[in-house]
Amino acid sequence: MTTTTIPNFTYDTLEPGQRLGTLVHEITPELVADYCVGTGDTHRWHGEGAPPFGGPIAPSAIVTIFSVLVFGIPGTHRPSGDLHARQECEFTAPIRVGETITTTGFLVEKYKRKGRKWVVFDAHSTDRADRLVARCRVTLVIPD
Amino acid sequence: MDVPKKFPTIVRTFSPDMVASYGRANGDRNMIHYDDVAARAAGFPRRIAHGGIAVAVVTQACRDYWGSAWFTTGRLSIRLLRPAFVGEAVTVGGEQRSAEDLDGGARVTFDIWCTNEQGEKILAGEASAILQQ
């Protein structure tokens, strides 16, 4: 189950530091399975269990999904057709299957270049214990 | 600290089933990923895979190199340069750039990339994590 809270904003009204969306994702076995099939990942740590961490964990890059969505769900909160230009992540803790991850975004900057609109934003993901599991920075080129 | 210099190579073909599963996971229903006509209308020659799939495959190679340390100390910075097409095979590779000794280990940094069937980079950047002694 996913809970999504996206405030109303447009490119023109965005300001650096502004809070973007907050998403709460249940890291279900089904979500991890879809993600693994979708990325061709058959590593046992994501199904049978990850001995260094106990039970199964999600692939690290699953947070990249959450990080992009804090800017809004394409076709719902914003137009489809954005271009994912850059992705940065720092992983600080594994995400266990069954965990609940909350991801919150903040705008870093916006600018226009070559007639296109660019936005850069941070997305921090925490677990149920409010422990940081990943911080990401995303750059999107957004359509008019 | 001596660290392994070889970065894992992964070759993966982005099948329609993969793209459909990834779309279920990320909620992206943009038809450019599922329909050639929609992709052409958007300026692409055919369906394109989600950019996040290539990012994920790169991080799989990172996990295979750094192991559990990737999940607690991993850093990734990449630029997405061009789309990968559905049905296309891509190859992930990397070359060690540096190994900075730390107390009890080293932060090892690789230049990383993912190329398409034409040998063009579809993404490039760097990844690092700490290997313990």
Q: Key features?
A:
heterodimer; A: 144 residues; mainly beta; 2 helices; elongated; B: 133 residues; alpha+beta; 5-stranded antiparallel β-sheet
Question: Could you characterize the architecture of this molecule?
Answer:
The complex is a heterodimer of chains A (144) and B (133). Chain A is mostly beta strands and 144 residues long. In chain A, 13% of the residues lie in helices and 40% in strands. Chain A has helices at 29-39, 62-69, and strands at 2-5, 19-26, 83-91, 100-113, 116-126, 132-142. Chain A has a 6-stranded antiparallel β-sheet with strand order 1-2-4-5-6-3, covered by helices on one side. The radius of gyration of chain A is 16 Å and the shape is elongated. Chain A starts with a strand and ends with a strand. Chain B is 29% helix and 35% strand. Chain B has 133 residues and is an alpha+beta fold. The longest helix of chain B is centred in the middle third of the chain and has 16 residues, at 51-66. The chains are: A mainly beta (144), B alpha+beta (133). The A-B interface holds A 2, 31, 34-35, 37-41, 43, 45, 50, 52-53, 57, 59-62, 64-65, 68-69, 73-75, 80-81, 83-94 and B 12, 17-30, 32, 42, 50-53, 55-60, 62-64, 67-68, 70-80.
Task: Summarize this entry quickly.
The complex is a heterodimer of chains A (144) and B (133). By secondary structure, chain A is mainly beta. Chain A has two helices and six strands.
Please report the distance between the alpha carbons of the first and last residues of chain A.
31 Å
**Which chains have the largest interface?**
A-B, 40 and 43 residues
List the strand order in the largest sheet of chain A: 1-2-4-5-6-3
Report the structural category of chain A: mainly beta
| DSSP summary: helix tally of chain B | 4
Could you give the distance between the termini of chain B?
7 Å
Q: Would you identify the regions of chain A where 5 or more consecutive residues have pLDDT less than 50?
A: none
**SS content category of chain B:** alpha+beta
Share in β-strands of chain A: 35-45%
Q: Walk across the major sheet of chain B and give the strand order.
A: 1-3-4-5-2
Unreliable segments of chain B (pLDDT under 50, ≥5 consecutive)? none
Give the amount of beta strand of chain B, in percent: 35-45%
Task: Report the helical percentage of chain A.
Answer: 10-25%
Largest sheet of chain B: 5 strands, antiparallel
| Structural Rg of chain B | 17 Å
Q: Mean pLDDT of chain B, rounded to whole units?
A: 95
Give the overall pLDDT of chain A as a whole number: 93
Q: Count of helical segments of chain A? A: 2
- Following the backbone from N to C, one meets helices and strands of chain A in this order, namely EEHHEEEE
Radius of gyration of chain A (Å):
16 Å
